[in-house]
């Protein structure tokens, strides 16, 4: 995640957290700021950075101080080669207040310019194993069912159902299924286009 993208996500998450602490719904916040519910949702979920005018309206509605809002903005280190997302840590994405029974969870948002995407479903039989491989581009995988041990460079990562992993495919990698059950993975490849 680049620094700009990280800041957009951080700002949105903090606004959402403060709004919820103030027990305001998106509808109420929309009424106070004049910003549409859809736009507020995009801001809170890190999809867009608010304009300066919108940010001031949000700060006013939440009684926030511009000088202190950014005080705890953490510094973000460079991409270390992989990002592991545990299923229980996915952040809920709040949509329209009227949507009942829809539970969106944000796994990852990442801007990838000039890239092609390929999506596959991988079934790993019990005991499945092979040598490590290296591939161009980035990979994102989501464990739909079962569990796998993922070897990534010098790391060994245990992934269970609903966990996901994003990594640089140039790092030698291989999943192994050491269980008695089949494992099903959704695999996405992001390939650079020159």
Number of domains: 2
Radius of gyration: 20 Å
Helix content: 25-40%
Question: For the record, what is the CATH homologous superfamily label of the largest domain?
Answer: Jelly Rolls
Beta-sheet strand percentage?
25-35%
Mean pLDDT across all amino acids: 80
So how many helices?
5
CATH C-level class of the largest domain: Mainly Beta
Query: What is the first-to-last residue Cα distance?
Result: 20 Å
Placed side by side, the strands forming the largest sheet appear as 1-8-5-10-4
CATH topology of the largest domain: Jelly Rolls
Category from helices, strands and their pairing: alpha+beta
Shape: elongated
Description of the structure:
The protein has helices at 3-21, 26-33, 37-44, 52-61, 66-69; strands at residues 82-85, 91-93, 104-106, 115-124, 138-145, 147-152, 155-160, 164-168, 173-176, 183-192. It folds into 2 domains: 1-74, lambda repressor-like DNA-binding domains (434 Repressor (Amino-terminal Domain)), CATH 1.10.260.40; 81-194, Jelly Rolls, CATH 2.60.120. The longest helix has 19 residues, at 3-21. A hairpin with a 2-residue loop joins β6 (147-152) and β7 (155-160). The protein is an alpha+beta fold. Helix content is 25%, strand content 30%. A 5-stranded antiparallel β-sheet has the order 1-8-5-10-4, with no helix packed on it.
């Amino acid at each position: 995640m680049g620094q700009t993208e990280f800041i957009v996500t951080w700002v949105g998450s903090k606004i959402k957290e403060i709004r919820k602490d103030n027990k305001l719904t998106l509808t109420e916040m929309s009424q106070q700021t004049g910003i549409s519910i859809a736009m507020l949702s995009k801001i809170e979920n890190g999809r867009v950075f608010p304009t300066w005018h919108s940010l001031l309206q949000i700060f006013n509605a939440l009684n926030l101080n511009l000088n202190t809002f950014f005080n705890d903005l953490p510094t973000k280190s460079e991409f270390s080669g992989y990002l592991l997302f545990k299923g229980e840590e996915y952040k809920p994405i709040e949509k329209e207040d009227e949507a009942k029974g829809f539970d969106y969870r944000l796994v990852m948002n990442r801007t990838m310019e000039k890239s092609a995407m390929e999506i596959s479903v991988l079934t790993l039989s019990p005991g499945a194993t092979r040598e490590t491989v290296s591939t161009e581009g980035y990979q994102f995988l989501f464990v739909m069912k079962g569990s796998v041990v993922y070897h990534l460079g010098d790391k060994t990562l245990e992934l269970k159902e609903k966990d996901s992993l994003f990594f640089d495919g140039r790092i030698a990698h291989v999943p192994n299924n050491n269980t008695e059950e089949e494992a099903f993975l959704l695999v996405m490849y992001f390939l650079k286009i020159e």
